[in-house]
């Protein structure tokens, strides 16, 4: 069964779906590892994501805060979400800006793409810097009902990242890359 894993020394002997839900699928593969040992490898299939560092004309960053079930707390992070099948990451970023914050970007600049958990999922997160913001309409889905919008002065956002107050991966990477992009 030839696949992308073989060229890196892995051989997949078979796969089973352990769980399939609306947002993720858990696979358990029977594999031969690069050093020749046979075993299993669990991995998760999730949609790629688009996350956005939105900076307004007053040099404030838009953060959303919502309940993060796995952490058991509310979490402050940059807006974003999953990219639909066949959807362009740039279009997803525009959609997510408006849905979660009620603001639309005139300008979107791709900052980077990264793998959030490469040992567990091949998903990629695309990070954007959004400027030239204008009013749109908030259209959160039911799972985002308790989400709130908070504008944070840019330097305070950078300080919150550096102190660990803001710890969500896309927010940390995005704010630090936006700092570099916006520094003359």
UniProtKB/TrEMBL annotation:
Pfam families: NUDIX. It comes from the Bacteria. Keywords: Hydrolase. GO terms for molecular function: ADP-ribose diphosphatase activity. The keyword Hydrolase applies. It is an enzyme of class 3 (hydrolase). The keyword Hydrolase applies. Its EC number is 3.6.1.13. This is ADP-ribose pyrophosphatase. SUPFAM superfamilies: Nudix. Residues 33-174 form the Nudix hydrolase domain. InterPro entries: NUDIX_hydrolase-like_dom_sf, NUDIX_hydrolase_dom. PROSITE patterns: NUDIX.
């Amino acid at each position: 069964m030839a696949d992308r894993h073989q060229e890196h020394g892995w051989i997949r002997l078979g796969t089973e779906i352990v769980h399939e839900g609306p947002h993720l699928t858990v696979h358990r593969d029977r594999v031969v590892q690069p050093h020749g040992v046979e075993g299993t490898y669990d991995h998760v299939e999730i949609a790629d994501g688009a996350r956005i560092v939105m900076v307004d004309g007053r040099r404030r960053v838009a953060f959303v805060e919502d309940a993060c079930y796995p952490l058991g707390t509310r979490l402050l992070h940059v807006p974003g979400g999953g990219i639909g099948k066949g959807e362009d990451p740039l279009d997803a970023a525009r959609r997510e800006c408006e849905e979660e914050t009620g603001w639309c970007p005139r300008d979107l600049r791709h900052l980077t793409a990264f793998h959030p958990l490469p040992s567990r999922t091949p998903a990629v997160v695309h990070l954007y810097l959004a400027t030239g913001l204008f009013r749109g309409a908030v259209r959160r889905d039911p799972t985002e009902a308790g989400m709130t919008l908070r504008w944070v002065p840019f330097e305070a956002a950078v300080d919150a990242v550096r102190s660990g107050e803001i710890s969500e991966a896309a927010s940390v990477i995005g704010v630090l890359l936006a700092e570099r992009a916006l520094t003359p």
